Amino acid sequence: MASSLPPRTAGPPRIAVVDYGAGNLMSIEHALTRVGASVVVARDAAGLDEVDAIVVPGVGAAGPAMARLERRGLVPPIRAWIASDRAFLGICLGLQLLFDGSDEDGATTLGIVPGRTSHLEHAPTLPHIGWNQIMRTREHPLFDGIDDGADMYFVHSLAGSPADGADDVVLARTEHGRPFVSAIARGRLLGVQFHPERSGTDGLRLLANFVAMVGVGVPASAEASAAADGMART
Amino acid sequence: MLLRRVIPCLDVADGRVVKGTRFVDLVDEGDPPELAERYAHEGADELVFLDISAAPERRGTLLDIVERTARRAFVPLTVGGGVRSVEEMQDLLRAGADKVSLNTAAVADPGLIARCAARFGSQAVVVAIDARQRPDATRPEASSGAQFGAREVVVKGGRERTGLDAVAWAERAVELGAGELLVTSIDRDGTGAGFDTELLRSITGRVSVPVIASGGAAGPADFVAAIRVGGADAVLAASIFHRRIHSIAAVKAAMAAAGLPVRAVPELAA
């Protein structure tokens, strides 16, 4: 058990894609594999052992998704993982679950980022399906090599809004009826409302950037991750 | 701003892409995943596979195609054709489809739309509506109320009439949980006579979910009309892309020139 700055492992970073019965895992598995990660599918807490990062994908309603995460014993390990600032990427519903709750079905979600998930009011069409631009609010290694205003693929009807005072997590916004938060970051906790695994070349680049950040941290969180990281390396 | 999508449709039979007017004169056009990847590189915003094979063992073949496509084409994939149950939809999603389209089975059992939407979310459920001009639609009693009643839903690839009004069925499908509609004019399909913008307008004026126009594309101007006149959010075509009559880039250039927001065709990857 090493406790040091996350070392560059000999092999590719190991990334657990969490399978909790909320949609298509195949495309995110293939996309992460394409950009050089070693992907394992995690269906329970044991699946999170000895990985370098967690990706929570998912589409659909928050309530049933939380129930399935809880049933599989995944909520406590995911909370602990994020609390120790290990690399985490939530995609679509996987981002929405990070907030306190969802207006869709009143579900209480993980409460890791203060704020709520709410409907996209005034949208000309719903669900919001298709390619739309992500407008950055700040620079971040996740966007290396990707133009500001790049098109990404969205499929959703709700979006999370950080509470007042928690706005500093916002990385990018997108507009459909109203502006909504399309990417967040806090240390090595990352979330995107769009589907990078379905967003062509720029989406793959974003995932490659995430894989590159796994195990090396970002400058602001290097100390925290060094203190927290006690994973066995193979 | 949400961009207008251009979607190539690949008709798939027994593991191969086929071309020709649907169901007749099928010509082998190649390996679906290979063609899917090519279209993704050429700027397709999404892909649709429509399984038109009749063989009983077709399901396994289709799942294999979807799985191989998900490995190499990193754009959204909708799969349809003969899907009859929540279980079949689940298998397709697990294989790598993002959305599944329901057609004949949903007409026979509208509750299927609700069951699939409850299980996978509306965003994964596309209802495909094949519509045909009613032969008696010009009679006053059949055409009362603008276009209402002018188009009838047909199933089984257009071979069977249902008596359902296309607009009423579209509204019902959305109420039941369809997250998107794929509206095909069977009159125009394969004719190159342009999209049925009247049909599209009558549906897009009544539903808030995205509508994909299909059937009749001959040239880039038709795509513009489907959006400008028909109100469609996305446009789908098969033969003009397969036969390389027009490239996706050319269609998008025409759309952009008409002031429609489109995604730039990415640099061709090596």
Overview of the molecule:
The complex is a heterodimer of chains A (234) and B (270). By secondary structure, chain A is an alpha/beta fold. Chain A is 23% helix and 28% strand. In chain A, strands 2-1-3-4-13-12-11-8 form an eight-stranded mixed sheet, with helices on both faces. Chain A has a three-stranded mixed sheet with strand order 5-6-10, with no helix packed on it. In chain A, strands 7-9 form a two-stranded antiparallel ribbon. The radius of gyration of chain A is 16 Å and the shape is globular. Residues 1-5 and 217-234 of chain A have low confidence and may be disordered. With 270 residues, chain B is an alpha/beta fold. Chain B has one domain (5-257): Aldolase class I (TIM Barrel), CATH 3.20.20.70. In chain B, 34% of the residues lie in helices and 24% in strands. In chain B, α8 (220-228) packs across α10 (248-257). The model of chain B is unreliable at 140-147 (pLDDT under 50). The chains are: A alpha/beta (234), B alpha/beta (270). The A-B interface holds A 23-27, 30-31, 34, 59-61, 124-133, 151, 153, 155-157, 175-176, 195, 197-201, 203-204 and B 1-5, 40, 45, 67, 70-72, 74-76, 93-98, 120-124, 179-180, 208-210, 233-234, 263-264, 266-267, 269.
